[in-house]
Amino acid sequence: MAILDRLPTKDRLFRFGLVVDAACLVCGSDSELRDHLFAACPFAMDVWNTVLSLCGTRCAALTWDQRLSWMVGNLKEASQAQVR
């Protein structure tokens, strides 16, 4: 659902008139959009940096789409290296 941008984020629910406040529940500094929740939120950035650091890698991607492309490319490379 995240890849298709179909998550019931507060921003989407706000557009349907189902919630009053579209602010991010985690940081409160921006609208709760998929891109914010998975890439731009300071909490999400900390999580990404911690997980990638534990995996011994880094990713300079700034948006969700950039992160997704990076993950697909790196996972494809890793799986091909294991086959060899």
Automatic annotation (TrEMBL):
Residues 2-48 form the Reverse transcriptase zinc-binding domain. It comes from the Eukaryota. This is Reverse transcriptase zinc-binding domain-containing protein.
